[in-house]
């Protein structure tokens, strides 16, 4: 009896939660709409699945804020987060930080490069396929533009490299000590590129997965100082080279 009673109460609670979620989903849909766009075919069936993602304890306004980039005033494309916890489109924040040194939202000084906001990316990955076709097309068009922007950046970068190679320029080598200026120059690329692009960039200096795996301890230390990573120590104060290799791996694969 007890179980049944509890079950009925649970059902009621579940139904009430469900209704709450449906309302939230509708509000979420309206948030995703351009002010000038009217949704013609509201289809509950296409939006219900995002309900568990929205959750009952998250205010819809907060979710809206999470998804909007305050620079372009649109839903984020490849969300990146600053250490003050504000997120923007990757392209928007990269361009912003080229001319500004503070967060566009809270004006805090930005001392660390932005990082991918994987949590918001996950929300977008689940949410975008659920929005109506017109909205989705607009979103995907913007996404393509952002991708082209970064591709053009990489092409320019590759051009500079190939011109420099042609004119006999030597690149920094990871096993040589770099000056402070050289470190700063290299860091610009570390902050700008990620994934395959970052790998290509690091390869220019010989800073590769294979190098990190096989480098001698003295070479690892030089690499760590060149790319300004922490040098971890064991409780005995000896350097933890095992962990240092992992830290350096993170640098080339972030
Ligand atoms: Zn943006
Ligand atoms: Zn901020």
Query: What structural category arises from helix and sheet content?
Result: mainly alpha
Helical residues, percent: 55-70%
Separation, N- and C-terminal Cα atoms: 55 Å
The dominant shape is: globular
Major sheet size, sense and barrel closure: 3 strands, antiparallel
Low-confidence stretches: 1-7, 27-61
How big is the Rg? 24 Å
- According to CATH, the fold-level topology of the largest domain is Herpes Virus-1
Describe this structure in words.
The protein has 12 helices and 5 strands. It is mainly alpha-helical and 254 residues long. The chain folds into 3 domains: 2-54; 60-160, Herpes Virus-1, CATH 3.30.40.10; 170-253, no CATH class. The strands form 2 sheets. A 3-stranded antiparallel β-sheet has the order 4-3-5. Strands 1-2 form a two-stranded antiparallel ribbon. A hairpin with a 4-residue loop joins strand 1 (68-69) and strand 2. Helix 11 (217-226) packs across helix 12 (241-252). The longest helix is centred in the middle third of the chain and has 34 residues, at 133-166. The protein is globular, with a radius of gyration of 24 Å. The termini are far apart. The model is unreliable at 1-7 and 27-61 (pLDDT under 50). One zinc ion (ZN) binds next to loops.
